[in-house]
Design goal:
CATH superfamily: Cyclic phosphodiesterase
Number of strands: 9
CATH topology: Cyclic Phosphodiesterase, Chain: A
Shape: globular
Order of helices and strands: EHEEHEEHEHEEE
Helix content: 25-40%
Largest sheet: 5 strands, antiparallel
Distance between the termini: 25 Å
Number of helices: 4
Number of domains: 1
Length: 186
């Protein structure tokens, strides 16, 4: 099973995510994420044997208990790219500072500690709370993406975060399909 832990955006933000993606319409070589599947990844676990799911569940429950983070509001807004404006592979909308970013970072760091402590691989990058909007296949649309990222700072929307989800990702010819395996209340 290909697994990750996330905070999913609600259906009420699907249209706003699609509108944010439209700002990048002139950028060739972008593959847009289905707005209905957008989320903030807290931890990517990758290929995981099904018998390890109880260890994942215990890690998330311990992380939530340790952080004492309760339900909170998060605002999605502003654009960025990974890894840099010189070499773009991912286009994203961020989580605004002071509007959920600290809580998400606290959860992600606690989940990282708990999962690594249970012999899951550590993340290779520092956590940046974001929603992936598109992936870039090649540099043809780089200038258009750079222009939008530098000039636009939209608010995509605000939503209530009340749970973390364990998700399974199945890769298909039409893109990934996500299914919730388990929900963890904050």
């Amino acid at each position: 099973m290909r697994l990750f832990l996330s905070i999913d955006l609600p259906d009420s933000l699907t249209d706003a995510v699609a509108t944010a993606q439209e700002r990048f319409a002139a950028a060739e070589s972008l593959r847009f994420v289905d707005p209905a599947q957008t989320h903030v990844t807290l931890k990517f676990l990758g290929d995981t044997d099904e018998e390890r799911i109880p260890a994942v569940e215990a890690a998330v429950e311990a992380a939530i208990d340790d952080t004492d983070v309760g339900p909170f509001d998060a605002t999605i807004g502003g654009f960025g790219v990974f890894p840099s404006l010189d070499y773009i592979s991912v286009v994203w909308a961020g989580v605004r500072d002071g509007a959920g970013a600290a809580e998400m970072t606290t959860l992600a760091e606690a989940i990282e500690r708990e999962t690594v402590g249970r012999d899951f691989d550590p993340e290779r990058h520092e956590f940046t709370p974001h929603v992936t909007l598109a992936r870039m296949d090649d540099a043809r649309g780089k200038e258009a993406v750079r222009r939008v990222v530098r000039e636009a700072d939209p608010d995509v929307g605000t939503f209530r975060v009340a749970e973390v989800r364990l998700k399974e990702s199945t890769l298909t010819n039409d893109g990934p399909r996500y299914e919730t395996v388990r929900r963890f209340a904050l």
